[in-house]
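Question (not urgent): is this output format expected?
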Amino acid sequence: MSAHAARMYDALKRITNYLSPDQLRRRSEKVYGLSADEAIEMAYDNVREEAKQAIKGVRRPKDTHE
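Got this back:
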């Protein structure tokens, strides 16, 4: 597996471990001391950052089905 593929796999694996919006609504105040809206917004920002880091410096593959 290439380093790029490993980085993408690792990012996706981390993202799958994020709490769902329903879980955040139930647990955010107790676990994180945040309102549900704040916790969901932060989780969304974290997912975007994980994805950005996974593809950083990588070009989009050429479409071979033209």
